[in-house]
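Researcher: Structure prediction, please.
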Amino acid sequence: KACKLAFYPGYPLIARAVVTVTKLPADYALLAVSLASSFLFLFLWTDPAVTRALGTAETYVALVAFNAFPTSCYLVFLMTEPCVLLFTLGAFIALLRKQYVVGALLAGAASGMRIGGAATSLAFALAVAVETWNERSRGWVLFRRIACVALSAWGAFALMGYHAWRFGDPLVYFHAHAAAYQVTGGLRSVLLPRVNWIMHSLDGPTHDLMWGIAIVLWFLLGHRETLGRFRPAAQVFCYALVVLTLGIAYAGSIELNMRGFARYSLVAFPVFYAIATFLRTRPVVLVVWLSVCVWHYREVDVCYYLGDVGTVGLQQCNMTQWATW
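Model: Predicted structure follows.
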């Protein structure tokens, strides 16, 4: 029964509330949550707080680049991506507007959706700490900022508290996940991955490692000019979000041949800001990049995105030649 604890309950709990109010079937309620969250996320992408700092043209180019990325299809799937993306972008916009309590609540909600949401919480907490230090805040303001740092992880704390009360183990999710997917999660696997994991990722249907390398390269090319347009606290948020999101995605997927890495990397949305800034003055390269993204998505069967991880998913999608690696 370990698999029943290998997923965060936040997304289905929201859907359960929708079922209670609307009487919709559970699958329709889950889809409604995903679609509503995706709509709000894409709507907030061009929020004035973002366009003022990044630039209107760059913001819209980034929006196109995000939606062209192959795994952006998860915006309309029954997955946690839409909720995590909405809460993460919402926290960033709240930070830009200096609405720290709102941002902390949203960052905390992201941490309650899935393990990768911890990147949002930590990024927001670091940003608030930097802002507080730069402003030399004292007294009541300092107290509120400290409270916001703690509040930014309320979702993770609530889940761990429930697991400690219900199962006597606040880390039961990690243990259940390891048992369900037969992974060790050890530091050795992260630092010294097996060659067949890397080869399988490169040669597998979704080519997650290839997209991961591309994401890192684009961010390295455009991060300085892009994030330099934001104030220091927002820069810290973006850098921390990218590093932590990609780090958590890598650590969680490496033993599974990096299956899902490109999907989990969507939350590192500042990467698409960097792509837009770097390629806005290079239209030919931009068109080529967008074309490659769309072509890859079109050529990969949707089963590979929706199937289970590891050899199970490959067998489900009738690609057993990879399952024997």
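Model: Residues 232-253 form the longest helix (22 residues).
Researcher: Thanks, that helps.
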